[in-house]
Design a protein that fits this description.
464 residues; alpha+beta; Beta-Lactamase; 4 domains; five-stranded antiparallel sheet
């Protein structure tokens, strides 16, 4: 261990080992070596007491366990060809090389290959300026004797000598901790950038001056890659939903509460996208930093929630919502056709529920094919279907649509080895101003039951 401490002193300027003296073997002492050859031509050895019994139980101290005493500032002198002329003691402690290892070699021999271009540019910069008294700096990685690389900020002070030659007196400042922090920050930024590019949600950051400082690729895809530099650009890309978004952002900017809203983006391809937007304030202790927005495409989720799994038609909840919207849009001028299959239980009993489901899906397809543009159809459940005719308020037009539906069901439905005939009873109700969706559905339902009990064409118009 003593030899290890001595070798460490030669390499790094200081070495320590734990020893036990023959005269007092119970107590541990610390043996220190200090390399003072350059200043005083000696290696100083100092013996001190250890820190206590805990140290004794720990065992000998190896030189590698010592904290580095590497200086942060050193000086290196180079000639006109960038060969090292001299170094101070701090430079040898900083890099671990002896002065003889450095002097006479080109500086590039100790600079990382990736930094050579920057080092040469820094050196050649003196050509474009006066030689005397001009300082040029660059951050470069220097090779240490242990094989590691150390970031040093090299400041070359080019000085004209009395003999007409120029030397560069370089100040070497250890900036390894700073560069490590910069590298860690860069790594974190890359990670966050990769994260924001990968997550399946649109992200954007609106600064306090309403400039958009960040938009991720998912958001660009949602808004069809519009050029977004400001809040006005973003709201313009949202079309009719732009004003609600702008108002929500302004509220978060002004008052600071979170905001959540659902919007619809109308795209150039005609496919509207339903999006859920979340807005959160971003601020520091002394000032607001804007609003962070998250935009999630919920179109497929909403479609799944609104779709009947068996037939692919609108389900009961979605269709009732559609009816309420259409009644508002057309001031009650909407007709409803309620269809119920007659005796369909016999199909399930005779052929099984799997065949019955196939027939229901085929019925849905036939009914949908008989609709006019703008009509809506949904499955209430079981063998009941509802058709909405927006803008239709007169009984004759509503009955004409019902007959189209009835005619679509007349051909038998083929099954493996046989076929079945499906008959439906239809109840028709025409809307009026101020009528509710529940009232209109109830009237069409009652008319449908009347048609079931009657013997005829299975079409009944509800009384007004």
């Amino acid at each position: 261990m003593v030899a290890d401490a001595f070798v460490a002193a030669l390499a790094r300027g200081i070495g320590v080992a734990k020893i036990h003296m023959p005269s007092d073997p119970e107590n541990a002492l610390l043996l220190h070596y200090f390399d003072l050859r350059e200043e005083h031509g000696i290696i100083l050895r100092v013996v001190t007491s250890s820190d206590g019994p805990d140290d004794e139980a720990r065992g000998p101290v190896r030189a590698a366990e010592l904290h580095s005493t590497r200086p942060r500032l050193a000086t290196m002198t180079k000639n006109e060809t960038a060969s090292i002329v001299s170094v101070d003691r701090a430079a040898t402690l900083m890099l671990g090389w002896a002065a003889s290892d450095l002097v006479g070699h080109s500086t590039l021999d100790f600079i990382h290959p990736d930094d050579h271009v920057r080092a040469i540019d820094n050196w050649m910069s003196r050509i474009t300026s006066a030689n005397g008294g001009t300082t040029h700096s660059a951050r470069l990685r220097y090779l240490c004797k242990d094989g590691s690389w150390l970031w040093l900020e090299t400041s070359n002070d080019f000085q004209l000598q009395d003999d007409g030659t120029t030397v560069a007196v370089a100040q070497l400042l250890d900036v390894s901790e700073e560069m490590a922090a910069v590298e860690a920050l860069r790594h974190n930024e890359q990670f966050l950038r990769r994260l924001t590019d990968t997550v399946p949600v649109g992200l954007f950051h609106i600064a306090g001056d309403n400039s958009v400082v960040f938009v991720n690729p998912v958001l660009r895809d949602l808004i069809e890659d519009a050029s977004i530099h400001s809040l006005s650009d973003l709201t313009a890309a949202m079309g009719a939903e732009g004003p609600p978004l702008a108002a929500a952002v302004a509220g978060v900017m002004r008052d600071g509460p979170d905001a959540d809203l659902e919007l619809t983006i109308s795209r150039d391809d005609g496919r509207a996208r339903s999006v859920r937007v979340t807005l959160r304030p971003v601020d520091s202790k002394d000032r607001g930093l804007g609003v962070l927005g998250c935009m999630v495409d919920v179109t497929d989720l909403r479609r799944m929630a609104d779709t009947d799994v068996l037939t692919g038609l609108r389900n009961r909840r979605a269709l009732l919502g559609d009816l309420e919207d259409e009644l508002i849009r057309y001031s009650g001028q909407v007709s409803v056709i309620f269809a119920d299959l007659d005796g369909f239980k016999l199909v399930n009993d005779q052929y099984g529920h799997q065949v019955g489901d196939q027939v229901l899906a085929a019925v849905a397809e036939r009914l949908q094919s008989a609709l006019r543009p703008g009509d809506l159809i949904g499955r209430l459940g079981g063998d009941e279907f509802i058709v909405l005719c927006p803008g239709v308020a007169d009984p004759d037009s509503a009955m004409a649509v019902a007959r189209r539906l009835q005619k679509a069901l007349q051909p038998e439905f083929p099954l493996p080895g046989t076929s079945v005939r499906v008959v439906a009873s239809f109840g028709i109700a025409c809307g009026a101003p101020h009528i509710t969706a529940d009232e209109l559905i109830s009237r069409s339902d009652s008319a449908m039951y009347e048609s079931k009990q009657a013997h005829g064409e299975h079409l009944t118009l509800a009384s007004s």
